[in-house]
Amino acid sequence: MIMRLVRLTLLLFSLTSTSLSAADFAARYEAIKVSATPEQLYKFLYALPKGGDLHNHFGGSIIPEWKWDILTDSTRNGGDTFYTRARFAVSPDAVDPRVRYHTIRQHTYDQLDPQKQSEYVLLLELSDDQRTEWLNAFRLDAPGEGRHEFFAYTWDRLGDMHRNPHVRFEFLAEHIKAFAAEGLIYLETMFGLYTMTTNDGTVLSDEEALLMMEQRLAQPDVADTGMELRFLETILRFSPNALQDLEITYAWVNAHRDRWVGINMAGIEESGKGYPLRFLDTYRKMRSQYPTLPLSIHAGEMDSPDKNIRETLLLGATRIGHGVNILGDPDTLLMLQHSDRALIEVQLISNELLEYVPDLSQHPFPELLRTGVPVCLNTDDRGMWDSNMTDEYYTAVTYFNLSWEELTQLGRNSLTHSFLDDASKARVLSKYDARLQAFEKELGMGDLDDALTKIDHVDAVTYGYGNRKWGFEFSKE
Ligand SMILES: [Zn+2]
Question: Which of 99, 279, 420, 465 could form a disulfide linkage to 425, CB 3.0–4.6 angstroms apart?
Answer without folding.
Answer: 420
